[in-house]
Amino acid sequence: MLSRLTRPQAVAVCAVPVVALLATAALAPLPFSVAQPGTTANVLGADKGTQVITVSGAPVRRTSGQLRMVTIVATGPEATVTLGDVVGNWFRSDRAVMPRDAVYPSGDDVKEIEKYNLAQMDESQHNATQAALKYLGLSAGKVKVDLKLADVGGPSAGLLFTLGIIDKLDGDGSGGDLTGGRTIAGTGTIDPSGKVGAVGGVALKTQAARRDGATVFLVPKAECADAQSELPKGLRLVPVTTVKSAVDALVALEKGKGPVPSC
């Protein structure tokens, strides 16, 4: 025969499965990735001992400033992200909790993801070369551009590759550096016509840029609000929509003449 439980006893008994449920939820894997600011690289210089941009078939000018492409680093598709990880990183300005599908749209297989990202990078480099040569009015049949950047995948360096090629071949169009000697960073995809596209993680990328000395950050115009959300002190945002708008803004900054767009 079962004895009747008092109210405190009943509450205690009921609390056991609730606590167990909460503990299980806290440890259960969730479909998220945790991202943080990654590395940056000066596309006008060398990366791991190899020049990022090599041009043949046309005179190449010496540059003094920097054009830094930026990255974010995220937990891998096979990593376990729990409720505790989500809660612990949600309110950190140097972390972002993102849906795993947004970070790894090609699936969960690591080799397939690497293959996909490298293909995206190859396409980005091809588009950057086409966009730069088209902007300069040069023939791809006469000018050859080779782009190399180790351990980086995806399309988000397209804009910076394009500007790097332009700076090496033409600068600001009058003999000066496109950068004006500054450290310029930025992000954005590029298509062969020179149109700049949006990317992810811009709030984290601005932090990586400022950490590595940038004072100006070129951001796809559609992502101004995201870039402003955690903007580091001392970093100026310049929204762009095309290669021409980016070049015009940088020339205006360099010469101190003409309007410079802002978010």
Automatic annotation (TrEMBL):
UniProtKB keywords: Signal
InterPro entries found in the cross-reference section: Lon_proteolytic, Ribosomal_Su5_D2-typ_SF, Ribsml_uS5_D2-typ_fold_subgr
Ranges for domain Lon proteolytic: 154-245
Biological processes per GO annotation: proteolysis
Signal peptide: 1-28
A single MF term (Gene Ontology): serine-type endopeptidase activity
Domain of life: Bacteria
UniProt keyword annotation of tRNA-binding present: no
Pfam families (alphabetical): Lon_C (PF05362)
SUPFAM superfamilies: Ribosomal protein S5 domain 2-like (SSF54211)
Keyword Signal: yes
Membrane-spanning intervals of the chain: none
The protein's name in its UniProt record: Lon proteolytic domain-containing protein
